[in-house]
Amino acid sequence: MGLTDFVKNQFIDVIEFEDQGNKLLVYKYERPDNEIKQNAKVIVRESQAAIFLKNGKLADILPAGTHTLNTNNLPILSTLGAFAYGFNSPIKSDLYFVSLRQFVGNKWLTPKPIILKDREFNLVRVSAFGSFAFRVVDAEKFMKEVFGTQQKVLTYPIIQYLASIINETFAVTIAQCNVPVIEFAVKYKEISAQMSDSMQLTANSLGLEFSNIIIENISLPEEVEKYIDEQSGIGMASKNMQTFMQYQSARAMRDAAQQEGGLAGLGVGFGLGTNMANTIKETIEKVKIKCPSCGALNDDNAKFCSECGMKLSSSTHCTNCGAKIEPGKKFCGECGLKI
Length: 339
Known about the structure:
- With 339 residues, this protein is of the alpha+beta class.
- The chain has four domains: 3-99; 103-220, Tetrahydropterin Synthase, Chain A (2-Layer Sandwich); 226-286, no CATH class; 288-339, no CATH class.
- Helix content is 36%, strand content 26%.
- It contains eight helices and 17 strands.
- The chain has a four-stranded antiparallel β-sheet with strand order 2-9-5-6, sandwiched between helices. Strands 10, 11, 12 and 13 form a four-stranded antiparallel β-sheet that branches. Strands 1-4-7 form a three-stranded mixed β-sheet, with no helix packed on it.
- Helix 6 runs antiparallel to helix 7 and helix 7 (241-258) runs antiparallel to helix 8.
- The radius of gyration is 39 Å and the shape is rod-shaped.
């Protein structure tokens, strides 16, 4: 160290820190040999707390405001340092600024799928991701538990550590809430609220406060999603066959486009779908009596039309092939025999 540097180091310090990027949770003030001069000025902003550590142990905490460093406002640090000669020696310690503002937009996700027991699918794997916000509410606890015990000194590792706590809480919460997996999508807020209540106990012990824990997505394995699609399609078919066939055709187009040859085999899919619809329609009509007046389909044993009240003729059978012949027909639909 040159003479000029030595002289500069003897001037009274004015110590402050302003995070322009709003990304630092903890900032260490750097000073040669960690020497902070007697009567140095420390400016602590509203969203900060200044923390002194001596030999790795928390010594003093300064709240927001402007402070002059002397034995009056640093009694613990003075005792730990055992400064001689009326505290005229430099204060040798570590000084940190801890941000007390809220950190938002932090991401969390399940590193591996979580195995759940579901009432409909038995055992199923689920994955999830989301975001969370947090802030330091007790700088002393935070420095002791996270910064000291966990040795998390940078913002990103601290956020990763907090995300791991959320992952653990999420796994326990969805296992205990007993919500069917197909209802997860409408239960995001409810599950988030349960997570928040559980996590506040852990957060308080760390000097933190979690807020806005958001679940953005809970996903199921591909095979389970396909099964749900199939069940949805079957339910659609039971209500409206035409709509179901449109649904099947759309799925056939999607699947054919993903296969080799693209949509070349799509005609086969349409043919199968149309034939199936026609077969079902014919089967339904065969066990019904069609009213010759209004065309409504009636039960096989009905004597009068349920729509217009017209008397229905009894059905007959072909004397040649035995096929059932609807009233009003002049020829057998199977063999062509004239009735």
